[in-house]
Design goal:
This protein is mainly beta. The protein has one helix at 55-58, and strands spanning 15-19, 27-32, 38-42. The protein has a domain at 1-44.
Length: 66
């Protein structure tokens, strides 16, 4: 599975993304199918193109006065 991360609790790679965001914008929530635990994954260097970013955060306008 592409992007599967190792579960920090049981070591299984039977994991899947549960949500793009968790307690902050820099982590996503993942789920382990083996031990049925949820865990956070830091999105440092992720190459996933499709994130469910809320529209107000996806606006890429330059700040006024620049």
């Amino acid at each position: 599975m592409q992007g599967a991360r190792e579960c920090p609790f049981c070591g299984s790679t039977d994991t899947r993304k549960q949500a793009n965001f968790s307690t902050s914008l820099m982590v996503r929530l993942s789920y382990c199918g083996q031990c049925r635990s949820t865990f956070e994954v830091i999105k440092w260097g992720d190459t996933e193109d499709t994130l469910d970013i809320p529209a107000f955060l996806d606006e890429r306008e330059e700040p006024p006065g620049t």
